[in-house]
Specification:
This protein has 7 helices and 11 strands. It is α/β, with parallel strands linked by helices and 255 residues long. It folds into 2 domains: 4-166, Alpha-Beta Complex (Spore Coat Polysaccharide Biosynthesis Protein SpsA, Chain A); 172-252.
């Protein structure tokens, strides 16, 4: 039997953490929650479930998830964000491999909910995620934003049926606020990685970001919410690269 540890990082997730934890019942053998000192009822909700609740200062999404892995008792790990939950079909898919683990990692689709609407297009679906894996076969890598688990060379990868359900924003304003926050983080991460931006770069990414998500990826088929998602994404791209250019200029000036 391949026992599974669920690993979740949290910060003020009282709106969704209950759904997340409830969807794991009967699927995993332990649940690890690493919390960045939430000030809402996240901890109280977690205590209603049998979780190992650990507090740790937030150091970035990638670093926090790698930190959390060390507490998993089992090498087979299901990593979720607090605003995600397993669909019934995905639960059954994971049950089916629980005692018959054939690959080092498994991918499945993530379906995003925006203000009550399940989004079908733009860059929001199928939004494939590698979230079920052997922890000794890779690590969380890339930047500390939009991090992903990277399997080691030679590791095998499978696919599971069913969707990972995702509620990324509590409201339209929450979407805007998070995009502002993420653009700042993204700019700093790109700057640390040595990326450059000219005066034209923000505009190129703004127009291409909107065209790709709204036209190429059919975001217009999701109606008005599809437009909001794609236009906000384009503004996020513009802001991130504008801030990156400013960071580059500050570095040249020695600031």
């Amino acid at each position: 039997m391949s026992e599974i540890s669920a690993v979740i990082i949290t910060y003020n997730e009282e709106l969704f953490i209950g759904k997340c934890l409830a969807s794991l019942e009967g699927i995993v053998d332990e649940i690890i929650v690493v919390d960045s000192y939430s000030t809402d009822s996240t901890e109280e909700i977690c205590k209603k479930y049998k979780v190992n609740f650990i507090k740790h200062e937030f150091e970035g999404f990638r670093d926090q998830k790698n930190y959390a892995l060390q507490f998993a008792k089992h090498k087979h790990v299901l990593s979720l964000d607090a605003d995600e939950a397993l669909s019934d079909e995905l639960r059954e898919s994971i049950k089916a491999i629980h005692g018959n683990w054939s690959y080092d990692g498994y991918m499945f689709n993530r379906r995003n909910n925006y203000c009550g609407q399940w989004i079908r297009f733009s860059q929001s679906y199928p939004d494939r995620q590698l979230r079920l894996f052997r922890s000794d076969k890779g690590e969380w890598g890339k930047l500390n934003l939009h991090e992903r688990f990277i399997l080691s060379n030679g590791a095998s990868l499978g696919r599971l049926k069913g969707d990972l359900l995702h509620w990324p924003y509590a409201s339209r304003q929450d979407h805007i606020d998070k995009m502002i926050k993420y653009s700042e983080i993204g700019a700093r991460e790109y700057h640390k990685a040595g990326k450059k931006a000219t005066i034209f770069t923000p505009y190129i990414h703004f127009f291409w970001g909107f065209f790709r998500s709204y036209i190429v990826n059919l975001g217009f088929l999701d109606g008005y919410n599809g437009y909001l998602i794609c236009s906000t994404y384009a503004k996020f791209c513009f802001s991130k690269y504008s801030q990156l250019r400013q960071l580059n200029l500050n570095s040249k000036k020695g600031k």
